[in-house]
Amino acid sequence: MSAVTAAPPLASAPAARGGTTLTGTWSLVRFILRRDRVRLLVWSLAIPALYLASLGEYTAMADDPEGMQARAALVQTPAMVSMTGPGYGTDDYTVGAAVSNELVLWMVLALAVMSILQVVRHTRAEEESSRSELVRAAAVGRHAPVVAALVVVLLVNVVVAALSSAVLVGAGLEAVDSVAMSLGVAMSAMTFGAIALVASQVTEHSRGATGLSMAALGAAFTLRTIGDMQEQHGSWVSWLSPIAWAQQMRAYVDLRWWPAALGAVVIVVLLFVASTLASRRDFGAGLVPDRPGRADALPSLRTPAALVWLQQRMALLWTALGLAFMWFATGTIVNQVGAMTESLANNPVYASVLGSGEVTKAFVGIIVLYAALGAAAYGIVAALRAKTEEDAGRAEYALATPVSRARWLGANLGVTSAGTVVVLVTGVLALAGGAAVAGTEDVTFGEVTEAGLLFLPALAVFVGLAAALFAWIPKATSLVWLLLEYTIVVALFADLFHLPDWARRISPFWWVPDPLTAGVDWVHVGGLCAVALVLFVLAFAGFRRRDVATK
């Protein structure tokens, strides 16, 4: 006679084991920190490094009252109000006022992007890949993954605020104002992280959640721009944007803490909304369901390129439209740049940034550079979608069909390259169109367009480098982001930092000619094309030789 021993029941629900909906939160926090340690380290160091780099310029002008007042005159022009903020303390412009007026906007944008990407990566993207379902099958509460993602984003923003405050205080700025400004930036960035959490409940796909969140960030930037240009120090429209809340703290001029409370209240409200929405949807699904597709695919959709296009089209649409709107708005105020004083144009600090040519053309050249940087960022993100497909195991399925590796990678790079061109061209045409609508005579539509198109070979270098790193060293793809950050420093501050020629040549954008203020060196253009071609060839060769990661 044999006895059958019953297996113990599986206690899949934490409540059955005496747990709560937050059981396992700190284990997930440690897991996320370990998984994203390199990514988070780069973000944590990049923002303080930007403060440090900019402080070198500001402190160099601290002993030049005329130079500082010339800078204050620049900050008050409509062109710079749209690109920086409302401008406080311009009557007696100090280093602290310069930091607060000119850097807060860009620090909020950078940290907001980080917060959006991190929240979507560890919430909606995890559900979409089914990894979150496996995690929740263990001793993990229902809300633990979401809370863990938010805790990590909060920790990173706090660390960045602490390091930024240390850098600012180390440069001799007031400690209280430094801490207040850094916390205000972190609070605004966290607001967009909470927006991303709400978006993750609405849409079923991570690309849609990221697109909605980025659209909200673009709308906030636009509202802040419109509000700040309507009235000195900002109008009521400015207060509709979380970006303005950090700027309205008026650090180093007339510090006030209460605008930061707006961010705290909005974050709490958004978290409540996200929690309510999450309880009303099925796990893995969004509140807005996908439209049912055709039973059979059209012949035009039965190719790898068609699949990549379906994956990237919405991100391309919102990126191109958002940036084009921003550059069009900037173009409409180009004709006001000529009103700057001669002392500003002749100031050596601004001469190093704007160049020795006409101020209007030099300013347009900088905006074209910004448009190219935006296109480069899009190109990198789109190119690394191939790595996302491989990590998720979908590349393995595609390559198991009669699709060669070269065709699959070529489809990804082809759609990515075309999308990058679209983002650049629409942005440049919008800038030129805005300048034309405003009646600008110092620069023509054709000149602006030519200046933008000359960046295409350099953009191909960024896309090619991302592809080559993915093909040969997938774990090192973050290096392409370091190159983009270095390119920004070289493009804007190479002369201020007295960088040697060899250091400047590392940046692909250094080789791009500027037809607005100088001639076109076609040798440099051809060199960039050759480098891009070599990188693409290396990408195809490397991807054919290495193993494809399986899920």
UniProtKB/TrEMBL annotation:
The chain crosses the membrane at residues 40-61, 103-123, 144-173, 179-199, 211-227, 257-278, 315-334, 362-384, 413-439, 451-472, 479-499, 519-543. Keywords: Membrane, Transmembrane, Transmembrane helix. It comes from the Bacteria. This is ABC-2 type transport system permease protein. It comes from Krasilnikoviella flava.
